[in-house]
Amino acid sequence: MNMVKIIEKKKSGEALSQEEIKWFVEGYTEGSIPDYQASALLMAIYFKGLSKEETFYLTEAMRYSGDTIDLSSIKGIKVDKHSTGGVGDKTTLVLGPLAAACGVPIAKMSGRGLGFTGGTVDKMESIPGFRTALEPEEFLNQVNTVGMSVIGQTAHITPADKKLYALRDVTATVDNFGLIASSIMSKKLAAGSDAIVLDVKCGDGAFMNNLDDARTLAKIMVEIGNSAGRRTVAAITEMGQPLGKAIGNSIEVIEAIDTLKGKGPEDITELALQLGGIMVYLGGKADSPEKGLEMTTKALKDGSGLAKLAEFIRAQGGNPNVIEDYTLFPQHSLAKELKAEKAGYIAKIRAGQIGFASQLTGAGRATKEDQIDLSAGICLCKKVGDEVAEGDTLAVFYGNDEAKISAAVKEAEAAFEISNVPTEPPLLIKEIIGL
Ligand code: URA
Fold this sequence. Notes:
With about 425 residues, the protein is of the alpha/beta class. It has three domains: about 5-50, Transferase, Pyrimidine Nucleoside Phosphorylase, Chain A, domain 3; about 80-325, Nucleoside phosphorylase/phosphoribosyltransferase catalytic domain (Pyrimidine Nucleoside Phosphorylase, Chain A, domain 2, 3-Layer(aba) Sandwich), CATH 3.40.1030.10; about 330-420, Aldehyde Oxidoreductase, domain 3, CATH 3.90.1170. It has helices at about 5-10, 20-30, 35-50, 50-65, 90-100, 120-125, 135-145, 160-170, 175-190, 210-225, 250-260, 265-280, 290-300, 305-315, 350-365, 400-415, and strands at about 80-85, 105-110, 150, 195-200, 230-240, 245-250, 335-340, 345-350, 375-380, 385-390, 395-400, 415-420, 430-435. It has a four-stranded mixed beta sheet, sandwiched between helices. α12 packs across α13 (about 290-300). The longest helix has 17 residues, at about 210-225. Uracil binds near residues 179 and 180.
């Protein structure tokens, strides 16, 4: 096969065959196809798109480019959950323990984050002692005994996606339906769970900023999952404003704990209960999503979700006392408030800008090599729909570097829009696909 011919073919809008896609993915992963040819193909794909079949072939080629995880030694139906990425999204830390408390085995691999905040793995590492690099046997045993484990994704899983994603990141080819869908689904399929719940974020702080695009992406991913024999459901959820009030690492874990204590923000509580309910249903522990929701709600109210979180933290070497004593988390030395310049109603809190501001505090990485400040981030004091008086605090910025915090406050100023007329909070769950 010839790379120039493959690029030409896609450039002229023709569909690539399964063999061509496999040959490209294997060649690029092992290094025989150079970055410049892969970049040209990605840009051709960006403009001409991928058909349903091509997206599936690309997913499969990346899925099998490295190790795949065998979860068959774990009893029960394993259900995975994935978010396409949002600001303040700590849902996994809430719904994981809730679903596990309802009897669904959670064997999850998560990534580190590039961008607004760390990923789930970085967030978990803000718990003193918590280990995210478990040996495979330890991981499987823990799911069988505790019901839940979350580990970092190893380099041996979908190496093709790792290499291609890094290239897409620097060639402006990330935001393409087929490329995003195949990237996410190759990792989910390689990670081995029997069923998958996808949280497709929609709005200013997400890859998809309108409902039509979010629906298109969700449908492609649900189809890929189901075609691969994994029951897959996608929820399209709001990401116009950040989820919950905390955006950072340790402060997001604290908010997740508060939520499991029944004291969390409404949106994160609702999302975790609903998506957790779908997981309980797909995991065969409830005979409908509604029954699943009843079960997750009970696990929140009776404290069994919180108890499961403590058990999971202890099993992975973390100090479970963090649940009662938040001073055990990494501490910031500085805090700065952003005040409302006028009275009115919060009409918008642009998630993208708040996310970038949170990165500026030190909570996120601009490059893979950057060190995260686990204590840094932003706590919102208001959400869309809230009434404010002039001088009210809109948000508090935390960290350990004065210049970084000042830059973050400046960035976030324009994220808030205050209107004279009352504004309704946006609909949290917009659509569910695949149920
Ligand atoms: N998340 C991924 O894992 N891949 C993408 O392409 C986009 C978001």
